[in-house]
Amino acid sequence: MTQMDKIKVKTTIVELDGDEMTRIMWKMVKDKLLFPFLEMDLEYYDLHIKKRDETDDRITVDAANAIMKYGVGVKCATITPNEDRVREYDLKEQWKSPNGTIRAMLDGTVFRKPILVNNIKPFVSTWEKPIIIGRHAYGDVYSGTEIRIPSAGRAEITFIPADGGEPVKRTINDFTAPGIIQGIYNTDDSILGFARACFTFALDQKIDLWFSTKDTISKIYDAHFRDVFEREYEKNWKVKFEEAGIEYFFTLIDDAAARVIRSEGGMLWALKNYDGDVMSDMVAAACGSLAMMTSVLVSPHGYFEYEAAHGTVQRHYYKYLDGEETSTNSMALIFAWSGCLRKRGELDGTPGVCEFAGKLEAAAIETIEGGTMTGDLFSIARKSPNNRKVNTEEFIDAVAARLREKLS
Ligand code: NAP
Ligand code: MG
After folding, report:
1. What is the pLDDT of residue 2?
2. For ligand 1, atom 1: residue with the closest CA
């Protein structure tokens, strides 16, 4: 394409670069699938682990601020440093997970959606459409307090009001022998943010929203989640949902789990933190490969951050560094870009950009359905004489060839 024919993206996109094998693929995706066809302004933040270290992680905060300024960002996978990484990259300290930092600033909920292709069947034969998991990424057991009870004794739970009011105290258990206890919490603000993100996302995608908790057993904690969702729905979403022809449906988590298995998919399933953690891995595994799972952080304030659900694919990167051939799947990275472009196009009112995003996704899916795929999929795809295992770059080249056809 000449400069004149390129599709113009109106508003700046915030780009967060990352680490290892995903960083290698990130550049290939931009060079081969985006820059030849799009004229766009990118505000670039390099979240490479060394850059985070050099800036004392200021770069991550700056990137999150930029997403809040422009509204839409796209992020490559990044290393969350542990002790090994501190040694490997000679880091000043074990910097926090960039995703954690960004989530805390954007106040978001994470939505994960598998990419389905017709030659890789989900293990659940009734699933025709993707099941999207909306996981509340705040509180509960992830910030719980636990005590090992060594001997007989009374365990109590107490709330002490800051205004000097009467403390509220309950007995958890009178232990006659050793045991364990756990204290967990959540906040009304965070639950409401979670609810709003789920309603926003379901309406945006025009799909039903299911929400489930164990409210019959947890009559205050889980029931409160149910009530916050219900009130928010009645107040701000009921009319919009009815107009869009979609429904909000609350049910007990056991019932939801059984129904999901027998459903054809195609809904957003909102889940509390732990439930979402478990169920999103189950859905990912049932759909084939981690590399076929997209992820978007939706903030109740209307910010969007798109990424792949997988990590930096360290094992493949070491092979790459050794000069060996890799066959790493770039699908989730490609879909991070297409998701971000479509959202940008919607917000800007530029249908051409949304159309490009659709064509990019179609080109990528058709490449796999035509038999050209990376190793992770090659081993699980329906057998066909057309199937061909390609390397990392060959896959992206094959997508580029199809995309060119679609755009010409
Ligand atoms: P990972 O990068 O997700 O990779 C785990 C394994 O899954 C890979 O070794 C590979 O299996 C397979 N896999 C994942 N993505 C693939 C792809 N695109 N194509 C083909 N195979 C793929 O997880 P990890 O190795 O546990 O973590 C590596 C680094 O990523 C860590 O430093 C972690 O902190 C970081 N991480 C970042 C994010 C994020 O930024 N969102 C998320 C998770 C982890 P085989 O080796 O069997 O081929
Ligand atoms: Mg998990």
Report:
1. 64
2. 311
SS (HEC) of the chain: CCHHHCEECCCCEEEEECCHHHHHHHHHHHHHHHCCCEECCEEEEECCHHHHHHCCCHHHHHHHHHHHHHCEEEECCCCCCCHHHHHHCCCCCCCCCHHHHHHHHHCCEEEEEECCECCECCCCCCCCCCCEEEECCCCHHHHCEEEEECCCEEEEEEECCCCCCCCEEEEEEEECCCEEEEECCCCHHHHHHHHHHHHHHHHHHCCCEEEEECCCCCCCHHHHHHHHHHHHHHHHHHHHHHHHCCCEEEEEHHHHHHHHHHCCCCCEEEECHHHHHHHHHHHHHHHCCHHHEEEEEECCCCCEEEEECCCCCHHHHHHHHCCCCCCCCCHHHHHHHHHHHHHHHHHHCCHHHHHHHHHHHHHHHHHHHCCEECHHHHCCCCCCCCCEECCHHHHHHHHHHHHHHHHC
pTM for this predicted structure: 0.88
Which pLDDT tens digit goes with each residue over 26-79? 999 999 999 999 999 999 999 999 999 999 999 999 999 999 999 999 999 999
The CB of 78 under 6 Å from ligand 1? The reply is yes
Q: Which of 48, 79, 85, 82 is nearest to 63 (CA)?
A: 48
The Cα 272–Cα 138 span in angstroms is 9
User: Is residue 372 lining ligand 1, measured as CB closer than 6 Å?
Assistant: no
Q: Which of 241, 205, 215, 213 is nearest to 131 (CA)?
A: 205
Q: Which numbered ligand comes closest to the C-alpha of 281?
A: 2
What number does the ligand 1 atom closest to the CA of 329 have? 19
CA of 281 to the centre of ligand 1 (A): 13
Residues of the chain whose pLDDT is less than 70? 1-4
User: How far apart are alpha carbons 49 and 93 in whole angstroms?
Assistant: 11
Q: What is the residue with the minimal CA distance to atom 31 of ligand 1?
A: 79
Ligand 1, atom 23, lies closest to the CA of: 311
> From CA 85, how far away is CA 278, in angstroms rounded?
27
Considering only CA atoms, which residue is closest to atom 27 of ligand 1? 311
